[in-house]
Design a protein that fits this description.
It contains 8 helices and no strands. The chain is mostly helical.
Length: about 180
């Protein structure tokens, strides 16, 4: 399964500067957000974490400047249960996709704060891994090629339509994951 950020996208992130890095990271996080927020909604004691997650994704779209508190947000996110080591690993469908969404946000926050292309590439890897897994588990799905397309779109320097496309893609992923949950 192909999981890696395409070479042209990685090169555009390295060549494009901090604002391109921040926009790319924001779009990746937006597409993954429904997997975290939707799969964790209603979980006891998670309200503050859900608010933090949603607020962080929204703030990432301010791509013209780095988040002043990005490193503090990363530290807060790293305390989430999804990013804690588990002896038995993660095998539950909801837990798996919530993990990848949290990981994606972690790298997006790092990339936003630093403007570092390598952090953005890691953010993209998390999104591609999750969509690749989804394609393997949902007959006829095409989430991985769509993620590649949207990642390419994210580095072109034209943000028009990117938020809408990212929101739509995130919702479609969420519906597909919910369809895989035990009833």
């Amino acid at each position: 399964m192909e999981r890696l950020v395409e070479g042209a996208v990685a090169q555009a992130l390295h060549d494009g500067g901090a604002e391109v890095v921040r926009l790319y990271a924001a779009a990746c996080a937006e597409r993954m957000a429904p997997l975290f927020v939707g799969l964790r909604a209603g979980a006891p004691g998670r309200e503050a974490g859900l608010d933090f997650y949603a607020e962080s994704v929204l703030d990432l779209w301010q791509a013209d400047r780095p988040l002043a508190d990005a490193s503090e947000r990363v530290r807060q996110l790293e305390r989430f249960p999804e990013l804690q080591p588990h002896e038995e690993g993660v095998t539950d469908v909801a837990d798996t996709y919530a993990f990848f969404a949290a990981l994606c946000l972690r790298y997006a926050l790092l990339a936003h704060g630093s403007g570092n292309a390598d952090d953005a590439v890691s953010c993209g890897h998390a999104a591609l891994t999750a969509t690749g897994m989804l394609d393997q588990n949902v007959a006829g799905a095409g989430f991985l090629p769509e993620e590649h397309r949207l990642q390419s779109y994210s580095v072109r320097g034209d943000a028009s339509g990117l938020w809408d496309a990212s929101v739509t893609a995130g919702r479609e992923r969420f519906r597909a994951v919910v369809g895989r949950l035990p009833r």
